[in-house]
Specification:
This protein folds into 2 domains: 136 residues, no CATH class; 109 residues, no CATH class. The relative contact order is 0.09. It is built from 9 helices and no strands. Helix content is 77%, strand content 0%. The protein is mainly alpha-helical.
């Protein structure tokens, strides 16, 4: 789970860097972009680790119940994100991730029962957040009007992004695994196949599309594409992955 969240955070940073290049109106500089990416990542890790460490220690001193634990952790997550994103201009997502990791690591006095409740609160909050994202994006935005006057078939508009996504994932997984062999790190082929067939985190994709500037001409088109893309991914990928796991006898 931590690896998945860190992967999502890296994707968010990369998306924001590219978005900044496109919409800032400033000439592209590889050096400045690289330094911005590194600062966004390293600064966020340091900030999140620091806030999480202090927060975990404070919760140990208070020895409070699950309600205080959850409320305090929620305050740290929101506060850390605001400090990171608006004051230090580093990744708020990575900051929040490391706050969570350090709280769990340092808050050792939390009982098993409280820990379960703690996770349930956050799981439910994540569920509600995803629901709000999809409500905001609105299924009615899947309007045929966006494609009127176009000679490009709608089915291809839906299928091609999915094919591009799967191809990109395959290139990243298999290419990255081949690169790691240089450092004598070998990822079994079966694991690579599972990673390639793995599902897309729909809420994250929706949030990134919604973050595009309001005046961007193609924003409605991207919004209309993301829903069927996620829908196909949530229906097709689990079936393919389940069949592969059965045939390969992986647990």
């Amino acid at each position: 789970m931590k690896g998945s969240l860190f992967n999502d955070a890296t994707g968010v940073i990369s998306f924001n860097v590219v978005k900044g290049i496109i919409f800032s109106g400033v000439a592209f500089s590889l050096l400045d972009t690289s330094l911005s990416f590194i600062w966004s990542m390293v600064g966020a890790i340091a900030l999140g680790a620091g806030i999480g460490w202090v927060g975990g220690k404070l919760l140990d001193k208070w020895k409070s119940d699950e309600y205080v634990d959850f409320t305090f952790s929620l305050g740290l997550a929101i506060g850390g994100y605001i400090i990171a994103d608006h004051l230090l201009h580093v990744s708020g997502v990575v900051t929040t991730l490391f706050i969570a990791m350090l709280i769990i690591t340092k808050h050792k006095e939390i009982s098993t029962g409280v820990r379960k409740s703690f996770h349930k609160y956050w799981d439910y909050l994540g569920f509600i957040t995803n629901g709000v994202l999809f409500f905001i994006i609105g299924i009615p935005l899947l309007s045929m009007e966006l494609y009127e006057g176009s000679n490009f078939p709608l089915i291809l508009v839906i299928v091609i992004p999915f094919a591009i996504m799967m191809l990109s994932r395959a290139v990243t997984v298999y290419g990255g695994s081949a690169f790691l062999r240089i450092f004598r790190v070998r990822i079994p082929l079966q694991w690579q196949n599972v990673l390639t067939l793995g599902g897309l985190r729909g809420g994250m994709a929706v949030a990134l599309v919604l973050s595009l500037p309001l005046g961007y001409t193609y924003k409605p088109l991207f919004i209309s594409l993301i829903i069927p893309l996620i829908a196909i991914n949530l229906v097709v990928n689990p079936i393919l992955l389940a069949e592969y796991l059965k045939k390969s006898k992986l647990e």
